[in-house]
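The record is given unchanged here:
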Amino acid sequence: MIKTDSCLQCVRCARTYDIGELRYTCDCGGILDVKRDLSRIDGIRLKALWEERWGMKRGIEASGVWRYRELILDAPDDKIVTRQEGNTRLYPAGSAGVWAGLSRLYFKHEGENPTGSFKDRGMTCGASAARLFNAKTVACASTGNTSASMASYAAVSGMKSVIFIPEGKIAYGKLAQALAYGGKTLQIEGNFDDAMTLVQEVCRELGIYLLNSINPFRIEGQKAIAFETLQQLDWQVPDWFVIPGGNLGNSSALGKALLELHELGILSRIPKIAVIQAAGANPLYTMWTQHTPFKAVKKPETIATAIKIGNPVSWEKSLRAVTWSKGTVEQVTEQEIMDAKAKLDAAGIGAEPASCCSLAGAKKLADKGVIASGETVIGILTGNILKDPDAVIGYHKDTLGSHGIKGTFANKPVQIPPTLDAVKKALGVS
């Protein structure tokens, strides 16, 4: 059982629950936060401790999540499930930054995690919580990355995993991982939101531990993206974090991390958070721009399958993060997503389509004058380029017309006969 001063607190009504109680939502229907008594923590000493751990070669605290364990999860070493996740690189944007009109744009590449996405940061914490609750089986609904991560961490820790995916709505690079890691994969008729509804019912009725981002401990692990990025910047605070928005757990975690660091005095000012949604799956954007109550998108559509979610469970937490940071919410079209992907890939960095909302959104906000050209901007890349190879090939062969996407910056393969003259002609060499 989890033993700590923390509690679970509803983001909607503020009711609290014992952190050792196995629950995912409040009785009012709101989702839960892990609430810490930060008054017991010395921010200066904590920061110094984290610096001491930087560069550890082995052990639990060599993980880019458990390095920050004081703000992650109070768990004994023998309950922690880790694959040395995190420790991902922070790249200058290069030519992609020039294209976006931003001279100080950087990308935090979460696609360099063990299973190729940021989900590993949340999953190491969620899987560890599952072990604290003595779970034997874990489950999730997924558009791909969550299933890959959960199946891996379950296998490492000796738990069984059950995955609910929308039929025909998952990139094969992700489905392959879920199958390879041994997850029991159930394809349902319907979209992600249907799968999410079903998995909650299944977990409740069968006593299976739920590992979607509605699980408050998942969010705690994902906070480490912010901690590690700031440590890589020597704690110099950027002006903006720009992040894709699907189920909205990542932006929720980012906001919570920054809030805790600010309360501890580790951050002197607050960076703004920009959440970028696909235009075909944009409930938070609609709410933000039209000042209307939250309303789910019933049939979300986007080539960026990782964020093809019309009813994100973490919208309240994400909205809190954007509002508190004085940030914004933007949407990008299918064409803007794939053009940004082409530019990011051509810069030698590369990421899956959903990740490239960060670049597309940053460019759009720069074009609008919301982000100034000289401001320091951190874009979060959520998944590896090989997560969705079909989208890459389709764009560069210019065969995505059915999605309304042109290969604006296509790098088409050239078929030639096996002769030196043909090579010279293809390369423009006389």
The chain is about 35% helix and 15% strand.
